[in-house]
Amino acid sequence: MILFFVISLTSCKSTKNNTKTTSSHQKEWKLIWEDNFDMDDFLNPEKWNVIKRNSADWGNYMSNHKECIWIKDGKLILRGIVNDDRSIDTVPYLTGGVNTKGKFAYQYGKVEIKAKLENAKGAWPAMWMLADQPKYGKYPRNGEIDLMEHLNFEDQIYQTVHSYYTLELKEKKNPVYFHTPKANTKEYNIYGMEWFPDKLVFTLNGKETFVYPRLENVDPTQWPFDQPFYIMIDMQLGGSWVGEVEPKDLPVQMIIDWVKVYK
Asked: What is the pTM of this model?
């Protein structure tokens, strides 16, 4: 079954007076883009795309099935489910995800996503960012910013930076490229990142967890983060990192309350 969209006729909400204090890096932030998922039962197609199935390890089961993506009570719900009808689609599982590619991207500022996660063996929910254009060539030369990844039943999340520098040159300690802060993912948390020309500052519930700095006198592929990135949010299942899926644990879902971007 196909997920249908209704084009919104409403205008974007005013961001006047939407400012928020933060750390010493910036005196105040101004809200420039948001979605509170309050458009009845429909995903706003002016803001979001449904992620298509792809050959990446995380993309094996991406689908537009109506049971994988919906909005209810002002929340975006992304699910991983058992595929009960394999006569049309032969994969064992189906997962839902959305992104803003071609609709919204930004360079420098702050992103925050409020969400809670359900646990399952093989569950791999993620919030991440990719470059809007291939400025430096094919992946991983344009980098990847992982705001949050969660595996199985763990009591921690992963906040990670990937690039040609970390993946191909194997430079993972100069500087350290990831952090695993503790988190009660069953409760709502705010996963975020403050992005500056010289550093990425990862946050959890408004508190700094990890800083990835731009370094001098190293290979220039260490810092591809000087270009606009778009947002990805997806409920992934299975893969070489997270491991096998346990069907009896499904369905599993990620519930997103809101997404906000500040400058």
From this structure: 0.89
